[in-house]
Amino acid sequence: MTTYKEKILVVDDDPDILDFVHDRLVHLGYQVESVASGEEAIPKIAHLKPSIIMVDLQMGRVDGMEVLRKVKDDPEIAVIMMTAHASVDNAVKAVKEGAFDFISKPFSGDHLAMVVEKAISAQALKRQNTVLLEALHQPYREIMGESPLLNTAKALAKRAASTNSTVLLLGENGTGKEVFARSIHRWSPRAGEPFVIINCVTLREELLESELFGHERGAFTGAHQMRRGKLEIANGGTIFLDEIGDMKIALQAKLLRFLQEREFERVGGNQTLTVDVRVIAATNRDLDHAVEIGQFREDLFFRLNVVSLSLPSLRERKEDIESLCASFLQQSCQQIRRPLMSLSKEAITHLTQYHWPGNIRELKNMIERAVVLVSGNEIKPCDLPLLQTRERRRAKREETMVEPYHVSVLSHQKRVIAKALQETAGNQSKAATLLGLQRTYLSRLMKQMGIGRS
Which residues are 83's β-sheet partners? Predict the structure, then answer.
């Protein structure tokens, strides 16, 4: 994994010191900017967002202490004071007020490197602690099940996790795409770094852009201060772009540029930022079809589709239903603090015969509902009325009233094609194979029948 080069701002009114520190840090591989006064430093901080500020304690009207006061409440910035030997007492006071450390002039290049590396290590440890605290509130969920289709997907996910390749997760809603994304992150060398989620369908386009890339103060109405985007927050770790198929075309172009160059600008800004982030994307849409009808950029699709994983629907892995139910029962009983419940054999049979359009999410919700409402310790088929109601509605739809011959044939064709697309998570090529049709003929039928139009 490429090491992220931290940004360092150097502030000193002595040009010799400024040049020495700047050149040494650049030689060590850091991104460095230098200014000769505190007045220049303060606006530069908001623009640059450095990890480290090295500032001279005694300068002109705006000294090192003033710079420290401006940033001491920002946990992302560590301040190192540079001071003459006679001012060491003041430097110690600065440390008590929030500076990370101080270094006495004159200092060697090796001493400078040691102090800076110590500050960077401390910042990295702080970020890791933040990640661990977040993980406590969102405990890791195992990928549950041992069906052949699921095991194949898990094996591919584990192989992909060891690389930095972009992963595209495909599948219906409720098949566990977020759980897979978290697992790939956990299995990867980035496991100790942030895992950040952004849902591409819940925000308006302009808000999604700000959420992803961040914004500068005054970039738009309500942008009262600079805000880092999810890409910056995820630096060193993984970002999960859920529902990527619903991202608008204009924003797709900006995401494509990031995936190609690993750089971007905040909304309203002109400074190019670079981060080291692994991208996992997910969608329930047929991106091939979205590309064909102009709703998704082909070049972005190719960038995302480096490693593609199709997650099986629950009806394709019904052998996992019993073990999933046992896990959901245990979780739900623990949450409401009641004795562990069980499912009768008849209830399990009933559950395995259901079509599960909502997949694992629907199964989990159904079990939670039963745990809350059933008074006894065993759940029976009669305790699953929602499932029974849906089955009755589906059967009633299938027993449709008599229609004219051609209308009936057309309706049946639509149902058959729709079912094939559902079975293959919207993949037209797989659906055509399942139906024994040519892909081009299936596409033509879909257009004639209006299937897939938004």
Answer: 104
Could you tell me which residues come within 8 angstroms of residue 71 by beta carbon, excluding any fewer than 6 positions away?
A: 45, 53, 77, 79
Rounded Cα–Cα distance for residues 269 and 46 (Å): 11
- pLDDT tens across 411-452, in order? 778 888 888 888 888 888 888 888 888 888 888 888 877 776
Question: 46-50, 331-335, 410-414, 450-454 — which one is most confidently predicted on average?
Answer: 331-335
Q: Locate 239 and state its tokens.
A: 């970002």
In terms of DSSP bridges, do strands 278-283 and 307-310 run parallel, antiparallel, or are they unpaired? unpaired
Tokens of 200: 């591409």
Q: Which residue has the higher pLDDT, 278 or 412?
A: 278
- What tokens does 78 get? 């560590």
Q: Can you tell me the distance from the alpha carbon of 186 to that of 34, in angstroms, rounded to the nearest whole number?
A: 38
Distance separating alpha carbons of residues 83 and 88, to the nearest angstrom: 7
Which pLDDT band holds residue 271 (cuts at 50, 70, 90)?
confident
Task: Take residue 361 and report the two structure tokens written for it.
Answer: 């999410």
Write out the two tokens for 68. Answer: 């420290």
C-alpha 324/C-alpha 276 separation (Å) is: 36
Contact yes or no for 210/222 (Cβ under 8 A): no
Instruction: Report cis status (omega within 30 of 0) of the bond before 339.
Output: no
CA distances, 314 to each of 79, 142, 187, 360, 425 (Å): 53, 16, 24, 6, 12
pLDDT in tens, 58-97: 888 898 899 998 888 787 889 999 988 667 788 788 888 8
Nearest to 113 by CA among 45, 48, 29, 51: 29
Contact 3, 45 (CB under 8 A): no
Residues 443 and 420: their CA atoms lie apart, in Å, by 13
Q: Is there a contact between 115 and 81 (Cβ–Cβ < 8 Å)?
A: no
Instruction: Look up the pTM and report it.
Output: 0.64
Query: pLDDT band at 239, cuts 50/70/90?
Result: very high
